[in-house]
Amino acid sequence: MPPTIWKPKPLWTGKQIISTVMLNITPSNAHGLNLDAKAKVPGQLWGMGSSEDKVIFMDGELLCGVLDKSAFGATEYGLVHSVYELYGADVAGKLLGVLSRLFTKFLQHRGFTCRMDDLALTPEGNRRREQLIQQGINLGTEGAIENFPSLTTATEQDKPGALRSLLEDVLRDDQKMAGLDMTVKSKLAKLTKSIADAVMPHGLLRQFPDNHMQAMTQSGAKGSAVNAQQISCALGQQELEGRRVPVMVSGKTLPSFKPFETKAIAGGYVASRFLTGVKPQEFFFHCMAGREGLIDTAVKTSRSGYLQRCLIKHLEGIRVHYDNTVRGSDSSIYQFHYGGDGLDVTKQKHLYQFDFIAQNERSLVNKYRPGEIYGVVDPQQASDYMKKILKRKLKSKKLADPTLSLFNPSRYLGSTSEKFAEKVDEYAKALKAKEHSEPPIKRRRPTLAAKHFRQLMNVKYMRSLVDPGEAVGLLASQGVGEPSTQMTLNTFHFAGHGAANVTLGIPRLREIVMTASRKPKTPSMTMAISQGVSAEDIDAFCKKAGRLTLSQVVDKVTVKETLSVEGASRSKEFTIDLVFYPQAEYEVEYDVQPSEILSAFGTKFPLILKREIQNELKKLDQDMKTQMAEIGRGKAVRDQPGGAEDADEDGDKDTSKRKDKDDDDVSEIGDGDATSAKRERQAKEQATYEEDEDDEDAEDDIMKQYDDDEIEAAYASADEKDDTEKLRSVSESLAKQASAVEQLFMENFSYTTSFTFNDSGCTIALRFGSNMPKLLLVGIVEKTCLKTVIREIPGITDCFKSKDDKGGETVYRLTTNGSNIPGLWQFACSDADSLIDEKSIYSNDVYALLITYGVEAARAAILREVGGVFDVYKIDVDSRHLELIADYMTFDGGYKPFNRSGISTNPSPLLKASYETTASFLSDATLHGDFDDLTTPSGNIVVGRLNLTGTGVFDVVMPVEPAEKLQGLSVA
Amino acid sequence: MADQDESAKLWKVNRTIHELVKDRGFQVSDDEIHMDLATFRSHYANNAGSVDRGQLNFFTNHQNNPEEQIFIFFSDERSVGVKTMRKLLGILEEKSIQRGIIVFPGNMTPSARKVIVAMASQYKLEEFSESDLLVNITHHTLVPKHELLTPEQKKTLLEK
């Protein structure tokens, strides 16, 4: 290749070196590469109007563009991928080898370094950064105030005090804490971003081509923009388990801060940068976050490893057969064509890159040699049929049998998926149009004729089909298992303000795939709103759909206790005062009428109150007993002076703790978070508990059941009564209703002596015998209020709208926490015009969809949910893999999990035994006289045979002479 | 309020059941499916606004085979017991119809379910709860159109 510069001495450009490489690796029978691609580095960084971001190869010569990650990195349609597509694996391998040696040589000659002033900012940049940080100094406090709507009306002086009391409140409630974290975090994220935006490319001391740090991050060689930002701008918010730094009981995050400090730094926001150093507190927080990251990687490897093993064991036998069907090892058909179009995942990558194909037509013709297949395959029949049905599709909606189902794609040229045929058609038509309209420029080569293009594409499709024997099940499980190792373990994702909190990452994947959970941890539904519904209506709907508990309208609870003497008997009298928020307030906030609140008092409230009191009494009783027992033994396991109340609380805590432990997976016991001392204590406690645990539990269950039944029954009867009441007269006065409710209340809770109700509150009087143990009624009543539901769709906690911008017009969508499809029908569709579009109700609860809408919907939901998990991490998993997994899970019409119970449908005992619980599967097989036909990979490995997948599918079969003939020969 | 709700609900149920019967290959006119709420009320609701479910009962013929008939029975009782089933069977017998669908507002007793199974040889009975028919699930975006294969189609599929 001639040098570009001749004088003063011959010099070659860098692009020419690449061209030379291409020249040397292009096979003799192929033509030079033509490629239009994009570089990773934006063009304007090289100077205004630079087109260095467009990588153009023409006939094997690099004409324009910089080679970076998108050319020879792991990026689709780059240089190396294109070479692989045109010249095959050998040449692509050679290219990589040559490039590697070439670049090493280059670095040996030129060297590469990164120094301090690549990281430093200009004085102007530093000034702007300081300024932004100064402006944002109060963002933490502002965010905290923003979190409490009640503070917006407060005066400036009241704010700090009110805020503090609110924060103290928040500290005790993890849920509220998470909400606060969210608001502050989103506020501070804006600050971090604004700093980076203000400074990042233009505030740097050295600009891009001379800035080696930037050269690395921009070209994709190493590091990302985040790394550069952490060094020169600010570290940003440190996160632990998706939250800000946890607060100690004292209300501080570190001893050096004030309690309930609202400043961003106390919440783990690091405004310093690595370049100039971070403050000690910031460093500590950063270490906390870093440590969590390390733990996370250590833990998740085992999780994702097990997930992958489960997938593989279930799918290992699934492979493509010679009739293009995807079948399991027992020949049960999972798909008629792999992925719906019978294409191989790796081979179909360039299939829709029509421009690339048209440019490199000659090389491709050389590769695929369409001429050779003539005579072997039927070239016309399938294409004709395809033309016919495409035409028909345009005319009417009625679907004909797809071409693939009538003509075997490996024997009939042009038997392709309809989608592909349509796209090719479109492109071919464009080609034709261009042919006619283009001014007659003299070209070295005539442009590709549309007819030839079609022919070539059909051949390419045929060559891109999956090979029979391909173990697509294995590919699918690895295709899903490998990316899952890249996901961080415990991530929570919030969609919009105060919106649904959805489990993501590996826990969610386990839930969908491995356990096929019938009750997902974070169920949620989404639905579209019908056209032309006003925003106010939607808001009203949201308010109505959410769950409203009594505690949300009750402002204050006061309990008065008096001892009264009536003749000989003494009795304790309690007066419970529930004060509601002002009527106007709760009507606006929750859209609820006093009568609705009142009806909740009829049955639900007294029954729940009764149960709470009973539970409390029983607990007290139990506690007394254990304490008495302990006095004798003199053991000081959890001796706590301070009377029944304290001990009761303690006992309460312990039981709940124990319950938590019991609920936990057995496998998680060895997690190591419990110290040995703790365990020892627990063991001791266990001994004391064990005695009466059994009968207590039994009793409890009975009690609970009884209570629930009672409540339900009572509620049902109350419902009927309510109905009749309503029928009598809708406009009946509240007072009348109240008296009716009073009756009901007394009926349901025999201790009640009186009950009065009005718009702003209600009073309940209770009377107990004097031998009642001391009760802390306020707590009980508060708990009862929390449990008393005024109005709900069962299973749905709240509902909110979100905006979707689809092509300019805003589409409102509703999202709910909790999922209950039939309940929503009842709720939303009982009016003549329903607000929501019931055709689009979607739930992330696959099982619920299966029950209400059938398998096909469940399959679609699995696809969507698994795909959604990967989307969050911007991981691209081919839909074929997900489809195969979804098809496997819904194969028998149900929702089959990838675990022990799911594998029991597999006919091969050896495969089952090699998975989990070997002994039980083996003994089952023995008991039932099961046999293994050695068609599964596992079975074959056990006996040391070749697998029936890949190159092992076929066999050399010899015509064997009939036995008599052989015998006759040997005799002769 | 409650009554209005009921007629609206029943209107939807009525629509869905007509669509369902049509999907099963029986003759149903489009008027019946696209009837609007006002017409529905004027037809079936009495002055007080409540709907007499007995009036909603209807029967129709199969599109291909006019002899095959289906009868749709709306139950008045909240919970369907053997008694209601007998009533339905009586009607079916009287009109000599082989297929029946019972739509009930509340729930169905297990013994009534047993009747369906017991009569399976004589009558093809199906049951739906009104709450399940509020929405036609086959119209959902995720649910593709289901088609029953004819015996010939089944044969060709299995031969492939």
TrEMBL record, chain A:
Residues 631-699 are annotated as: Disordered. Residues 662-671, 688-699 have a biased composition (Acidic residues). Signal peptide: none annotated. Keywords: DNA-directed RNA polymerase, Nucleotidyltransferase, Transcription, Transferase. SUPFAM superfamilies: beta and beta-prime subunits of DNA dependent RNA-polymerase (SSF64484). GO terms for molecular function: DNA binding; DNA-directed RNA polymerase activity. GO terms for biological process: DNA-templated transcription. It holds the Pfam family RNA_pol_Rpb1_5. Transmembrane segments: none annotated. Residues 2-119, 185-270, 277-906 form the RNA polymerase Rpb1 domain. Its EC number is 2.7.7.6. GO terms for cellular component: RNA polymerase I complex. Belongs to the RNA polymerase beta' chain family. This is DNA-directed RNA polymerase. It comes from Hermanssonia centrifuga. The lineage of its organism: Eukaryota, Fungi, Dikarya, Basidiomycota, Agaricomycotina.
Automatic annotation (TrEMBL), chain B:
It is found in: Nucleus. Residues 135-160 form the RNA polymerase subunit H/Rpb5 C-terminal domain. The keyword RNA-binding does not apply. Its main location: nucleus. InterPro entries: Arch_Rpo5/euc_Rpb5, RNA_pol_Rpb5_N, RNA_pol_Rpb5_N_sf, RNA_pol_subH/Rpb5_C, RPB5-like_sf. One of its GO terms (biological process) is transcription elongation by RNA polymerase I. The keyword Transcription applies. GO terms for cellular component: RNA polymerase I complex; RNA polymerase II, core complex; RNA polymerase III complex. SUPFAM superfamilies: Eukaryotic RPB5 N-terminal domain (SSF53036), RPB5-like RNA polymerase subunit (SSF55287). One of its GO terms (molecular function) is DNA-directed RNA polymerase activity. It holds the Pfam family RNA_pol_Rpb5_N. Keywords: Nucleus, Transcription. Residues 5-89 form the RNA polymerase Rpb5 N-terminal domain. Belongs to the archaeal Rpo5/eukaryotic RPB5 RNA polymerase subunit family. This is DNA-directed RNA polymerases I, II, and III subunit RPABC1.
